[in-house]
User: What shape does this take?
Amino acid sequence: MTDEEIAALVRGDESDRVERKESLSDRVRKAICSFANDLAGHRRPGLVVIGQRDDGSCVNLTINDQLLATLAGIRVESAFAPFPAIDVKRMTIDGCDVAVVVVHPSSSPPVRYDGRIWVRVGPTTRIATPEEEQRLSERRRASHLPFDVQAVAGAQLSDLSLERFRQEYLPNAVAPDVLEENHRRPEQQLAALRLVTPDGEPTVVGILVLASDPLRFLPGAYIQFVRFDGTELSASPSRTSALPLTAIHLLNMTCRAAMSAFA
Assistant: This one.
C-alpha cells in the first residue's frame, strides 16, 4: 500500500480494515491476528494504527525506534501460528505522529494468536465462531490449488477476450453436440473450464490463453517448442526453442487478419 492509501484509510472511521490503539498492548496482537485472517475476504491489507483514540483524535504518543522495533518483532512471536506478514511504518497524518502496522492477508488461514482464532467483524475484533473457522479453513485449501488454476492478482474478467474464447477455445475444448445443448452464460463456461475462478477472477491458464497482454500479469512467460528424434519415449530432443507469448499473440493476429482478407 502507498502512504496515500494508508492515510486515506486512517482518516476514515474504524472498520474491518482499520483498528486504532492509543498505545502498544496485547490487543494490538489480537487485531493483527484478525486482519491476517481477513474474514471478509477483502484480499487487501488491514491497518493497526497506534497513537490515536477510537474517535481519531491524537494521543501525541512518542513514536520512537524502540516502539517500531517491538512492533516489527511481533510477526515472529511464538504465540502466532502461522506467523503473520506485516510491515511497520512511522507516519504523520494530519499533524499526528502514529505507528502503522500494515497486516497482509494470510495465504494459509486460520491464523491463531495464543491458541485462538481472532477475526474482524465490522469495527470489532472477536474470537471466530466454528462456522467462521470452517470458512477460513476452506479458504486455505483453495489457496493450495495447482498453480495454473489459481487466481491472478489484479486481473479482471474484462482482461480476457470473450470473442477468442467463443470462436477459438470453446470449439476445440468442448464437443460440438455438448456446445449445442449448452446455454450457460460465458462466465459460467469460463469457470467450468477453470479459466476463471468461481468468483469470476481470471486464473493463470485463463490469462495465458485468453488475455491480450499476458505478460502484463505473468512477466517472463513463454512457450517452449521441442522436436524429438523419433516417436519413442526414449527419443532424444533434437531441437528446443522458446518463443515469447507476445510473439505468439502477434502471429495469431497476423494469421487471422490474412484469413479475413482472403475470405
In short: Strands lie at 18-21, 46-50, 80-81, 85-93, 96-104, 112-113, 116-121, 124-127, 222-228, 237-244. The first strand starts at residue 18 and ends at 21. The chain has a mean pLDDT of 86.
